Amino acid sequence: MRILLLTHAYNSLTQRLWAELTSRGHDISIEFDIADSVAEEAVALFKPQLIVAPYLRRAIPESIWSKHLCLIVHPGPVGDGGPSALDWAIQKGVAEWGVTVLQAEAEMDAGPVWASVNFPMRAVKKSSIYRNEVTEAASAAVLLAVERFESGDFTPQRPEKLHWQPLMKQADRAIDWHTDTTATVLAKINAADGFPGVADTLFGQPCHVFDACAESELKGVPGEIIARRETALLRATIDGAVWIGHVKRPGGIKLPATLAFAVEASTVSPASALCVPAGTSDGWWRVKYDTPYETWQDIAYEEAERVGYLYFDFYNGAMSTTQCQRLQAALAWAKARPVRVLVLMGGRDFWSNGIHLNVIEQASLSGGSAADESWHNINAMDDLTRELIDSPYQLTIAAVSGNAGAGGCFLARAADGVWVRDGAILNPHYKNMGNLYGSEYWSYLLPRRVGHEKAAAIMRDRQPMTAARALASVFSDATLGGDAEAFRSDVMRRASALAHDVNFAMTLISKRAARAEDEEDKPLAAYRAEELAMMQRNFYGFDPSYHVARHHFVQKSLASWTPRHLARHRDLGWKVPEE
Ligand code: COA
User: Fold this and answer.
1) Cβ pair 58, 558 in contact under 8 A
2) Which of 352, 376, 382, 521 is deepest in the core (most CB within 10 A)?
3) Exposed, middle or buried by CB within 10 Å (0-12, 13-18, 19+), for 320?
4) Residue 227 confidence (pLDDT)
5) DSSP collapsed to 3 states, 212-229
């Protein structure tokens, strides 16, 4: 079928639907919802048999829904309606939620239901629910709705009654640090995570707070900021404390809390040293899982059965210069441990999205140079990638549970094996960010893996890859099913098997021989120098495309047109195929 995806942005859910529908043989084109007339034009050009709206911020015009079947993805169960569906569900702490695919009509969220899928809720950030449970449920529900539409014998039913919930306002989200418990504060910040955040004050100054995490050991006077650790600030509640990871100040952009309040944060005392990992004598990374208390920690390490697991849970998968350097130090430390296999676990929601575009943008906003910060950041990413490539005494695995993009994908490919959770989306290309050339040794890692022709196509086409597509194109080595917890268990089982494999020594010898041969052929330093020469042009050259694209990405500027590689119906000479 010819299906038009009408969407506010090409976000991860839209990417997932594009990939799922394309892999089932449907003919998909995409139009951003910019104006009624633009959407009408897209419909006239593409002549879709069906329109799917995975992510809209306003209603579809009557001129379209009255003539074409339009399926809206609503992040709420059957009968739920309103623009803050997930926010209310998280803040109220409901046990079960869902996604409904319904037909667009005059009344919002009230049309006949084509499919719906429910799921149990987790008490986590809205963005995490959206990228996991909602994306899974929406994907299943849309595929079912499309099948039902194709079959021609399904009659959608209207919900029996509609429970409309209004837009959640900042007054509904407000935190009272003198009465709210840790659980309440967390629920409020979780419900606002990603966007819009909770309007609050820090150091007596207004800001929006995001990215909260409970602390159960450290306590203080309710409302006071009592500690900092790396990029996060700890604020006491009436029964504990909450780490605030990210902050947006008025007129500013979302930043790590200790950067947004750099001067004020420098006067806050650092949280006490983290405890030593079990079974190690010199570790400074606390074991992340199965600990008796909760705290915030972006880099963590644990060890079991001759396997080391390195976790790096950076917000949104963005990795600043300092974060890359800290992770490199952690990796170098882990490589000196008596382990045979090292697994890079990344974070639950993102593995890595490459250089930290917000921190880079902030450099220019605070009077510094975005080009210099980009340069430092990409060099730190390259140093980290090199640290991983140069691992002669271990087999390394990138266990990609959450999404990965740009340089983050090539950091993963620098490991000997890449195992991807079914459901994760990879974007192993750079061009969307103002024609960025990219580094992270991609020009060595990608062609070596998929061949020159396919490497060129991946970079050129700039399309997202599902786990299945990544495996089919041999970008990855395995697809593992299940949710994040099931994935982690499976990764641990497989990594342990790898460490105890009778052929382990031979595998390591072959790995070293292959690396030595490649180095002989062309040194890694040469790949890096070539890539960085191109990146230098992107950062310091005449063409400002990268700086412009980064600025719009970070500032979340509204799109004024749909990129041509997505809007196929706008290709020159595009014609509706003969039916
Ligand atoms: N630096 C800073 N922030 C980043 C980031 C990066 N490299 N990559 C993603 N983010 C942020 C987004 O701004 C967004 O922020 P929000 O919490 O304020 O909404 C959040 O992460 C989620 O991004 P979003 O685009 O909504 O996620 P997605 O899962 O729908 O899409 C990508 C994933 C990878 C397609 C998209 O995030 C992207 O294009 N990222 C940029 C990758 C890049 O160019 N990196 C630099 C070159 S190495």
Assistant:
1) no
2) 352
3) buried
4) 94
5) EEEECCCCCCCCCEEEEE
pTM of the model: 0.95
Q: Is 516 exposed, middle or buried (0-12, 13-18, 19+ CB in 10 A)?
A: exposed
Query: pLDDT tens-digit profile of 497-510?
Result: 999 999 999 999 99
Task: Give domain 298-543's CATH superfamily.
Answer: 2-enoyl-CoA Hydratase; Chain A, domain 1 (3.90.226.10)
Binning pLDDT at 50, 70 and 90, where does residue 278 land?
very low
Ligand 1 lining (C-beta closer than 6 Å): 11-12, 194-195, 254, 316-318, 353-358, 403, 405-407, 427, 430, 432-433, 436
Residue-wise pLDDT tens digits, 287-305: 444 555 688 888 888 888 9
Our measurement of the distance from residue 58's CA atom to the centroid of its chain's CA atoms, rounded to an integer in Å, reads 24
Measured in Å, residue 556 CA sits from the centre of ligand 1 at: 10
- Predicted confidence at residue 291, as pLDDT, reads 56
pLDDT above 90 covers what percent of the chain? 90
Which residues make Cβ contacts (< 8 Å) with residue 439, sequence separation at least 6? 378, 381, 382, 407, 528, 531, 532, 535
For the chain, domain boundaries: 2-167, 173-265, 298-543
Per-residue model confidence (pLDDT) at position 537: 98
**How far does residue 348's CA lie from ligand 1's centre (Å)?**
15
Ligand 1, atom 33, lies closest to the CA of 12
- Ligand 1 pocket test, pick from 126, 198, 211, 353 with the greatest ligand atom count within 8 Å of Cβ, gives 353
Closest CA to 202 of 171, 245, 253, 251: 245
